Amino acid sequence: MKLLQSVSLSFAGLALAACGPSSTAPTAGGAQAGCMSRAYDTIGGPISLVSHTGERVTEATYKGSPTLIYFGFTYCPDICPGTLVALNRAYDLLPSGVDAPQTLLVTVDPERDTPEAMAEYVSTAAFPDNLVGLTGTPDEIAAAAEAFIVQYERIETPDSLAEYTMDHTSLLYLMDEDWKLQTFFAEADANPEYVAECLAQHIG
Predict the structure, then answer these.
(1) Whether the Cβ atoms of residue 135 and residue 48 lie closer than 8 Å to each other
(2) How confident is the model at residue 43 (pLDDT cuts 50, 70, 90)?
(3) In what order do the strands lie in the sheet with 171-175?
């Protein structure tokens, strides 16, 4: 329990900083550690969501190969698409013989992010080719977020066309073949070269 509390506190500085109007770059002590030393067995857990193709999926669906998970939403103006573009560039930099991990985008905005909306979003040419969008009921999203210590909050923006935005933890989680956390990347260190090097060390 103490470890979980410690990890939660370390992640607190990364929470609710992704897409709101007053966003600041997230930082955390854990994220500054070497990419081989960020495996917490208290992060990650069961999920039960719906893919952008309308299929019900769980963590078992993705076991058997490495999986990279990002929590975001389709109306995110900059951080989410920027992260996915950078991730695609990182995949392009992987050494020959190292395959990109299967890649999941879990929405924190199930009200707007239907499977149809997710399908259109994940087809963006600049995003990873293997990107799968996941959505679900508010309770299902909350359960998945809790498993990954992801915090998110709806922020009303009545003067904008979108009417509201979502502030959320901005991390990339690399899970191994058994759905155990291998490492994570914060926005601050998720440049394509670094991510490619770290992925190659873990899954090469």
Answers:
(1) no
(2) very high
(3) 56-58, 48-51, 131-135, 102-107, 67-72, 171-175, 181-186
In terms of Cβ atoms closer than 10 Å to its own Cβ (0-12, 13-18, 19+), residue 56 is: exposed
In angstroms, the CA 128 to CA 124 distance is: 8
pTM: 0.85
| Assigned token pair, 126 | 């600049």
The residue among 109 and 33 whose pLDDT is bigger is: 109
23: pLDDT strictly greater than 90: no
3-state helix, strand, coil in the chain (%, to 5): 30, 25, 45
The CATH number of the domain holding residue 161 is: 3.40.30.10
What DSSP string runs through 74-137?
TT--SHHHHHHHHHHHHHHTSPTT-PPPEEEEEES-TTT--HHHHHHHHT-TTS-TTEEEEE--
Q: How many domains does the chain have?
A: 1
- Assess if residue 27 is contained within a domain: no
pLDDT score of 34 more than 70: no
Q: What is the mean pLDDT of residues 32-38?
A: 65
How far apart are alpha carbons 127 and 71 in whole angstroms? Answer: 15
| Rounded CA separation 34/197 (Å) | 12
Q: What distance in Å separates the CA atoms of residue 19 and residue 109, rounded to the nearest whole number? A: 12
